[in-house]
Amino acid sequence: MAVTALDSEITKSDKYSILLPTYNERENLPIIIWLIMKYLDFSGYDYEVIIIDDGSPDGTLEVAKQLQKLYGSSKIVLRPREKKLGLGTAYIHGIRHATGNFIIIMDADLSHHPKYIPKFIELQRQHDFDLVSGTRYEHGGGVHGWDFKRKLISRGANFITQLLLRPGASDLTGSFRLYKKDVLLKLIDCCVSKGYVFQMEMIIRARQLEYTIGEVPITFVDRVYGESKLGGSEIIQFAKALLYLFATT
Length: 249
Known about the structure:
Component of the dolichol-phosphate mannose (DPM) synthase complex. The chain is of the alpha/beta class. The chain is 45% helix and 17% strand.
């Protein structure tokens, strides 16, 4: 496909704001930041990393301040909050300070490898997708570090969701995505869910609003340091949200 002068100018002006909500990630944060720098600097894309720490008691914010001194305030932007206020509000808080026209959301616990970010960007540019999502369930994707029970729960939940909601995407609960900034703002405004199921509703609302969705196969790696934040309450939230979305979409 030929690239016009206008397309080239738009590409040059693109900037990617990477939102990293954190809570008790002091061990993981230096590693994920180093990996982001490695892959984004090599690719030559203009970017910034916005760290939204929700009052971590383990000193995550102090580590973030050290990283900002190391890499510079133009690349590492700190926007902490006093306490945990939810994932959706963390994104809104980060977007308010984002200078990019694209937003990348990912986990800070090393479950999402930054090596996939250039692939997200390339796919979005090729097809002008409104959002690009990492998927564990397409060919080339997968999960590392989960036991059989957790894999079974994840697969089962995804199958039921696909059956009931027909979302037009293979992985609804993943939280590794690239959005056009205006699209993300619109989706957040439409969503009512909180916590674990917030990502699922984002995809459903994207389908409702006829936004285009691209997918990149990824390998999800269970966290190396710290404890998983997924528990029984999140599973109950998932079931309630699934019924709500089935009834309202």
